[in-house]
Amino acid sequence: MSLTYRQSTLIRGSLPMLRAQGETITSSFYASLLRAHPELHNIFNSANQATGRQPRALLNIILAFAAAPNHTAELIPRLERVCQKHCSLGITPDQYDLLGKYLLRSFGEILGDRYTAELREAWEKAYSLLARMLIGREVQLYRQFGKWAGQRIFRIEDKVAEVDDIYSFYLWPVDKTPLPLFTPGQYVSVRVDVPQIGYLQSRQYSLSEAPNEEYYRISVKRDRGVPSGANGRSVDAAHLKPGLVSNLLINDYNIGDTLSVSHPAGGFGFDSSTAGGMGPLVFLSAGVGATPLMSILNSVLESPDVQQQISWIHCSRRKPLFEDHIRTVGRRHKNFHSRFWRSMLAEQEQRETHNPERDGVFESVRTELERVERSVLGLDHGAAEYFICGPDAFAASVRNFLLEQGVGELRIRCEWFSTGELEAS
Ligand SMILES: Cc1cc2nc3c(=O)[nH]c(=O)nc-3n(C[C@H](O)[C@H](O)[C@H](O)COP(=O)(O)OP(=O)(O)OC[C@H]3O[C@@H](n4cnc5c(N)ncnc54)[C@H](O)[C@@H]3O)c2cc1C
Ligand code: HEM
């Protein structure tokens, strides 16, 4: 069931108008979907709805797919990210029909008389093709999750203040059955009841310890919201809102409390079967972005015959997360190098898409990275692998720097903590 030539042409003809009205579509269609199905507030991230980030990301993918439904290769990494996120949130196939109904209705409202029965049928088919691709992949992922579909209850056995505003939670499964060995770099979705809004909310947290069958560790940074005038810019009042879930976890969840957690998910990972290979591993993080990289580092170090050079370059505003551990590793492993630098950058999480100073960020990251020896960055080694995680502008800048230095794209992997970043970077 592919689109006919005429249907593709009709769809392409409608794209300029839909693209131009993207903001109207995203604000109106989710509003009507959530009005008719308020229970979905429990699934969608309220902040990403308010800022429009997730609806925008969804619309971008649908329009990109519809523009070239037979050439989806470029979209695959983005679709994979979506499926991983969906599965960590327990999205089900039947919800696709519901979302499609409201989305296509909003297309009809934008296109008016141009939304003929023929065009509507073409769009229904295009949406259904994309939905079927996503559902197919999600079925596979759910199958891999095995018995742990949905949420599993964990008890907080320990809560450790790591550095200013970042707390680690040690989570042990209440049912005491062994945990699956996730791929280092993956995240879980933690779901909590948020009394302020009267709904459940899920947030993703990278697993910050090497895989093991007993417990998981997550490390959560308090999101204070941005004070007015941060970085010399004025910000709108909404940015003063402290983050809902991070503050709730840090303020109200203590040792002995339970948390509802999803199966690990996410495509940012490290294949530990290659640990002990010869290419240097270079970790580049900022702020709380050290979490998934710590899981990767610790799992690599578990291998008794680690030979390759490992470097960790970290940027933070104050004391770096996991600094003591990283320095201890440096003392024990002769082929390990660490470099730390201080910058406000590490505080800018989640807001850089609106940052008019992206070029400035790039320049400052480049200046810092140019101070690091090329050998530590593995720049003259054709097989070095790079793992980047931090605020969007940091990650994008590091990536650009590496590309400029001739590092091949396939050797650079980034984890993004915000929604829809692949489009923004
Ligand atoms: C794959 C992945 C891994 C992650 N790993 C980690 C991790 O290891 N550790 C970690 O600490 N975090 C991690 N995160 C981030 C985490 O999921 C949350 O996004 C973070 O904790 C903030 O959630 P919150 O509920 O506290 O804030 P939210 O309530 O989601 O708010 C987020 C921001 O949006 C702003 N905001 C809210 N409403 C509006 C509005 N109307 N207009 C403008 N701005 C608004 C808030 O002020 C706040 O700054 C990860 C995210 C992903 C996707
Ligand atoms: C063809 C259909 C769909 C597409 C193209 C799509 C696309 C997306 C995209 C691009 C993201 C952001 C991923 C990221 O960058 O992290 C996302 C997240 C999400 N999607 Fe979908 N999606 C579809 C269907 C659905 C359905 C049917 C539901 C359930 C009703 C759903 C619920 C969610 C939720 C809850 C999130 C996470 C929200 C957040 O963290 O802000 N999606 N989706």
Order of helices and strands: HHHHHHHEEEEEHEEHEHEHEHEH
User: Average pLDDT across residues?
Assistant: 90
CATH topology name of the largest domain, in short, is Rossmann fold
Bound molecules: flavin-adenine dinucleotide, protoporphyrin IX containing FE
Oligomer: single chain
Per DSSP, what share of the residues sits in E-state strands of 2 or more residues?
15-25%
Count of beta strands: 11
Catalytic activity: 2 nitric oxide + NADPH + 2 O2 = 2 nitrate + NADP(+) + H(+); 2 nitric oxide + NADH + 2 O2 = 2 nitrate + NAD(+) + H(+)
Keywords: Detoxification, FAD, Flavoprotein, Heme, Iron, Metal-binding, NAD, NADP, Oxidoreductase
GO molecular function: FAD binding; heme binding; metal ion binding; nitric oxide dioxygenase NAD(P)H activity; oxygen binding
Pfam families: Globin, NAD_binding_1
Write out key terms for the chains shown.
single chain, 425 residues, alpha/beta, Globin-like, Elongation Factor Tu (Ef-tu), domain 3, Rossmann fold, 3 domains, six-stranded antiparallel beta sheet, five-stranded parallel beta sheet, globular, binds flavin-adenine dinucleotide, binds protoporphyrin IX containing FE, FAD binding, FAD, nitric oxide dioxygenase, metal-binding, NAD
